[in-house]
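User: My collaborator sent over this chain with a note saying "see what the structure looks like." That's all I know about it. Can you take a look?
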Amino acid sequence: MKPIVPSSGINRRVLLAIGALLPAWSELLLTGSARAQTTPEGGPLPSWNDGAAKQAILDFVRATIDQSSPSHVAPEDRIAVFDQDGTLWVEHPMYTQVIYCLERVPAVVAKKPELRNVEPFKTVLSGNREAMVKLPIRDLEKILAATLTGMSVEEFNAEARKWLETARDPRWKRPYTELVYQPMLEVLRYLRDNGYKIYIVTGGGQDFVRVYAQQVYGIPPEQVVGTAGGTKFGYAKDGKPFLTKEPKLLLNNDNAGKPEGIHLMIGRRPNAAFGNSVGDRQMLEWTAAGAGARLKMLVLHDDAAREYAYGPAAGLPASRVGTFTPELYDEAKKKGWTVISMKNDWKRIFTFEQ
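Assistant: Without extra context I'll predict from the sequence alone. Here is the result:
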């Protein structure tokens, strides 16, 4: 999931997505977890077509686990990092966390009725798409602050978990947590089976992703590095201590913030990095700068029939969500990074495909 609004710590990536993509999201609404991964009988990565991308993964793992290889990596040093939105699950037409924030507005207003006739909550409640698109950044910031902060960590986790259990993507009519890419689940498992410790490194909200990371990806909360806001320690009336989520930025985990976040939260340079957009460029560059074998991969969304197609690299439609620019594509080719074509490299995209 773009810079952050410094005054509140709310991820500007989310703010821009609301303004840019409300029409597409609304139109879809009007028109319409660690998922079971069986051990493959035909070898690893069964949802991948044979080709350069699949071979790059196999070759990398083979070289780094073979003790006789000059590229051998000690088990304690095996680190792989994955962006989430657009790399592990669907990010179009709008980031899942943005949808969560918008759909949380009625619940927030129910608890605080005084907001019903106050902007921007009044506009969101009206359902007026044109008016919502015109909301200024400062109003969008109010929406995120109201829906993502001001409650205890436990309250936020419970609300996010409840929403994820009941919300459905308007295109596939399935929970958002089912819109994970089966080929990438196989990569996670393959790396894990070969001694790699897996981290999600996302521009999205760290607390939001931690709610479902264990269930969906088999990745525990402590291995999620995301955009992080502050918390404040306090005591309830009964003396029980708790943490309150505050609109204060601690880590902007996007663009250059990703390698900074990796150093802060992990303390080791990754051996492998997977992304899909300009927000992941510095993470791949940081990974590539290390010695020894390095795996750098970018997912290109070029399958409009089975998922979505956007770039604007490779002549695909431009997008403000998950932008994969021609410049990034050229850098990947020049530096030997592997570009994964959804259309050509993946036999299937989702677990639920027949």
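A starting point for your reply to your collaborator: The beta strands are 79-82, 197-205, 224-235, 241-251, 272-275, 295-300, 338-341.
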